[in-house]
Amino acid sequence: MVPLKSPAELENIRKAVIARRDPNKPCIAVCSGTGCRALAGQEVALAFVQGIKLHGLETKVDLKRTGCHGFCEKGPLVVIYPEGITYVQVQPSDVPEILRETIIGKQVVHGLLYTDPVTGETVVHESEIPFYRNQLRLVFGNNSEIDPKSIEDYIALGGYSALVKALFEMTPKQVVEEVKKANLRGRGGGGFPAGRKWEECRNATDEVKYVIVNADEGDPGAYMDRSLLEGNPHSVLEGLIIGAYAIGSHLGYVYVRQEYPLAVENVAVAIKQAVEYGFLGQNILGSGFAFNVEVHRGAGAFVSGESTALMAAIEGRVGEPSPKYIHTAIRGIFNKPSNLNNVETWANIPLIITKGAGWYISIGTERSKGTKIFSLVGKVNNTGLVEVPMGITLREIIYNIGGGIPGGKKFKAVQTGGPSGGCIPEQLIDTPVDFDELTEVGSMMGSGGMVVMDEDTCMVDTARYFVSFLCYESCGKCVPCREGLRQMLNILNNICLGKGRDGDIELLEEISATMKEASLCALGRTAPNPVLSTIRYFRDEYEAHIKDKCCPAKVCRELISYCILPDKCQACMICVRNCPADAIIGGEGLIPVIDQQKCTKCGTCLEVCPPRFDAVIKLSAEPAPRLVAS
Ligand SMILES: Cc1cc2nc3c(=O)[nH]c(=O)nc-3n(C[C@H](O)[C@H](O)[C@H](O)COP(=O)(O)O)c2cc1C
Ligand code: FES
Question: Which ligand is nearest to the CA of 89?
Answer without folding.
Answer: 2
